[in-house]
């Protein structure tokens, strides 16, 4: 199973690179760091969904706060039947619902969060509403580590703790780089675990490119019931799979050339 998940992640990474070729304005480095996270959530059946009934009341909610960095969701949603695979070839073109930045009109995306830092607050509202309705669905939210500089994130962290939102699971794509530098040079938030523990969250840390470790932890966290919100710090590499982008403090704003992508794809065959 874990080998298949890793193979699927490798395939999604290739498809994401192909989408970048078609639509160069996509944020490729940010999208490559969370491929395994997205793959395990969906193909590992961690997130409960129905691609034929996308607004099913008993579905889990997945809020992607780092929307710009989730282009890898496009091939996943197409493969799972949320929309026709032919739509992938139209990305960035007039009339397509697939753009360089995701929009909530895309089947499978729950919300649009505008400025970074708002996704966790939206997720808190959903989690509280589900609890009040006595529904057992979970709310997953994916944020980038650079987003943690936003005060709105920490307001939501306090809100979740106060309301004991144990149905809320925050996943941090901890790729250690934001738009213009490494995060440690802008605002160093380490030790990150201690900050969430202060607010009475249950904290986990995991290797974010290891499908086996991600799967086992996601299962454990989803089945945990202790009146605490959960945070998973997934240590990742920005631009994973593209040597020129990995460990580049400016990878966030860089675009790959056609010949670069073609060489990468050829090397992964």
UniProtKB/TrEMBL annotation:
Gene3D superfamilies xrefs: 3.40.50.970
Record-linked Pfam families: Transketolase_N (PF00456)
Domain of life: Bacteria
Domain Transketolase N-terminal: 32-264
InterPro entries xrefs: THDP-binding (IPR029061), Transketolase_N (IPR005474)
Protein name (Swiss-Prot/TrEMBL): Transketolase
Source species: Candidatus Shapirobacteria bacterium CG08_land_8_20_14_0_20_39_18
């Amino acid at each position: 199973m874990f080998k298949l998940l890793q193979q699927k992640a490798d395939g999604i990474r290739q498809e994401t690179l192909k989408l970048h070729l078609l639509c160069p304005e996509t944020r490729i480095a940010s999208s490559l760091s969370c491929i395994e996270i997205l793959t395990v959530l969906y193909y590992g059946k961690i997130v409960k969904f129905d691609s034929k009934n996308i607004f099913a009341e008993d579905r889990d909610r997945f809020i992607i706060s780092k929307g710009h960095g989730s282009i890898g969701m496009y091939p996943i949603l197409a493969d799972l039947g949320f929309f026709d695979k032919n739509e992938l070839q139209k990305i960035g073109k007039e009339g397509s619902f697939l753009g360089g930045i995701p929009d909530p009109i895309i089947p499978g995306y729950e919300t649009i969060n505008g400025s970074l830092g708002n996704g966790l607050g939206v997720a808190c509202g959903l989690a509280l509403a589900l609890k009040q309705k006595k529904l057992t669905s979970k709310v997953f939210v994916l944020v980038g580590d650079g987003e943690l500089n936003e005060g709105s994130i920490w307001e939501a962290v306090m809100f979740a703790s106060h309301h004991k939102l144990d149905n809320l699971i925050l996943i941090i794509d901890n790729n250690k780089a934001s738009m213009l530098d490494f995060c440690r040079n802008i605002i160093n938030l380490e030790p990150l675990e201690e900050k969430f523990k202060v607010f009475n969250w249950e904290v986990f840390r995991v290797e974010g490119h290891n499908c086996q470790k991600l799967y086992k932890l996601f299962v454990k966290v989803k089945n945990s019931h202790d009146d605490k919100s959960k945070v998973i710090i997934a240590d990742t590499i920005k631009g994973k799979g593209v040597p020129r982008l990995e460990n580049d403090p400016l990878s966030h704003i860089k675009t790959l050339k056609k010949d670069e992508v073609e060489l990468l794809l050829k090397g992964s065959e």
